[in-house]
Amino acid sequence: MKFLPIHGLLALASLSVACLLPEERKNDGVRQVTRRQVGNGTPVGTGDRFRGGATAPRGLGTQSMTFSTLLNVNEIKSGLQGLVNAYGIETFETPYKTYEGARIIGAKVGGSGGNCTDAYRVFFNGNIHARERGSADNVLYFISDLLYADKNNIGLTYGSKTYTSAQVKTALSAGIVFIPLSNPDGVDYDQRTNSCWRKNRKPAGSAVGIDLNRNFDFLWDFTTTFAPNVQSTVGSTRPSSETYHGTSPFSEPETRSIKWVMDTYSKVRWFIDLHSFAGDVLHSWGSDENQSKYSYMNFMNSSYDSVRGILTDTPGSGRGYGEYTPTKESEVNVGAARRMGSAMSTAGGRSYTVMQSSALYPTSGASDDYAYSRHFADPSLNLIHAYTVEFGFGNTAASCPFYPSVSQFNANIKATNAGFMEFLLAAVEYGLGDKSTC
Ligand SMILES: [Zn+2]
């Protein structure tokens, strides 16, 4: 296996964008609107290509073609219904309605099936950030490919990455829960307005929207839990900011829905939150550099609040802080990330870099950190190896760089889907936790 080259972390941080544009990152999440570009990248589909679920989606791993339009919000729903009709998979709605009254819908595939809540060990979440176009498509098409390949006893091909029929069945055996579209209000708005919209659509004072990926219960109150000089990059308390973290952890129905999946499918062991665009596979932690020496030096220890998030200090030296991760867990976190990154690079499109999340920039309230933190905060909860995958390219020809061109959109599907496949195989090999069935 070919491993990606190791670069200096600071050099990487300056090259990568990852969900935030450079001006948003520097200036408390404020975006300057530029109107130089006029195109919007791949058009959003009109109508319903799945005809209310009469047709099931198929991805790019089981057929050779090019998608010329993105799925619209209704098509994500009808595509899911198509999978229900074609393969008998089971869907769920989380108990929380969005501000605009939408339901957050997911489904379960593989595992031991039926109503067994213990059979699902891998959770894919799509499009928590609205403008990151193609995220929902990537998730839905991948599951569609898995189901089609399984039913027809064939393998999968993504660029020069191929998987056998036996590997498809192994991957499905992990049991998967997925939410293709976790921010339906935001995506609907972004698709209607081409406004490069990132957040949800709940009014917040005189502004609109909460950054859902700063709203999870992990060091959420960053004005207390992070060093003063890093706080402006960690999140924002200003409702007009792209990184506004909301009024309390899990104040938003969208983030509560993701927590609900982890609570309901309590044996979930592996989690991916799918973002764009940086070409990164990010593993835990996102709060500070990792360390495995001092178990007391962790996110629950308020005596480190004033120094958390400073990446240049040395943990254990003076007031230096690093986030604790046990060596064995860390090796698995990194190992699966490397496999995923390597597969994504091989599938074509672009090369992917594997690194710790905080190396991009320290964050608070992010979904991956919350998922991995659960078993530290409450030892009765399952360990979840959690990742942020930043697929794709910045499209300099579009009004919003998060809107991919048609060739980028198709390359992104192949890359993420190869990454997902490799991730499932890695999950099975590293372990799914206890094997209890029901
Ligand atoms: Zn994002």
TrEMBL record:
One of its GO terms (biological process) is proteolysis. Residues 232-250 have a biased composition (Polar residues). Residues 1-18 form the signal peptide. One of its GO terms (molecular function) is zinc ion binding. InterPro entries: Peptidase_M14 (IPR000834). Gene3D superfamilies: Zn peptidases. Residues 232-252 are annotated as: Disordered. The active site is at 390 (proton donor/acceptor). Its cofactor is Zn(2+). It comes from the Eukaryota. The keyword Nuclease does not apply. SUPFAM superfamilies: Zn-dependent exopeptidases. PROSITE patterns: PEPTIDASE_M14 (PS52035), PROKAR_LIPOPROTEIN (PS51257). Keywords: Hydrolase, Metalloprotease, Protease, Signal, Zinc. Residues 69-427 form the Peptidase M14 domain. Belongs to the peptidase M14 family. This is Peptidase M14 domain-containing protein.
